[in-house]
Design goal:
There is one protein chain. The chain has a five-stranded mixed sheet. It folds into three domains: about 50 residues, no CATH class; about 140 residues, Nucleotidyltransferase, domain 5, CATH 3.30.420; about 45 residues, no CATH class. It is an alpha/beta fold.
Length: about 250
Amino acid sequence: MDKLTITEVKSILQQPKIKADILKHLAEDERQGVQRLLVSYQRRIEKQQKMQATFNERQVFEQAYWKKGQFVAGIDEVGRGPLAGPVVAAAVVLDDNFDLIEVHDSKQLSLKKREALVPKIKSQALDYAFGVVTSEQIDEINIYQAARVAMSEAYKGLQYNVNGLLIDAMDLDIELEQTSLIKGDDRSISIGAASILAKDYRDNLMAEYDLKYPGYDFKNNAGYGTAKHLAGLEKLGITPIHRKTFSPVKNYLN
């Protein structure tokens, strides 16, 4: 061990598991380079342990079902606030083999991280499904009811028979045990997974609409009222995917 170079020490400390006697030996190494690497290693381990602890906390609601040999679906929706496009919900069923500790509220994740997590979530999930409510339907029944419909449709799309639902701050007209959680996407791993899948699905839809209706920057604003979007409304008027009951869209109806 005394003959290890700094580069070799760095390689060792990047391994997922390191024996205690090796760490003890490195701790006794007086070279500043080794000590700096050990500090960096310890910080990384502490961060991972903290993430694992919070991940375990986000499994509490699911564990209540898993311990009984039951399944529960987490449901979340995205797209209540935009001026254009649908509201999209996702329902996700997980089991206790799910180990993606970075999964939580999609709004707290970067685009790069969300895109990396989506295929992993789909691979590990037992089941997932989506519900989509169009802008026309939103105008007919209001955005709150549209979100509920989208969530119900996502649940109905599941192939798994679940024993309960974990829902982000909502209740549905479904005869099944439900737990409504305020900020559920950051308190439940299955709701968090649903929020990530729903956002990814909707963002891809809006990117397609950006090609169909250029001039509003839908690809980058997802239908929210950004400066470029409002400029597009002023110059081009409304499109078929705009929500006509939303301000300021309704100002352009004539």
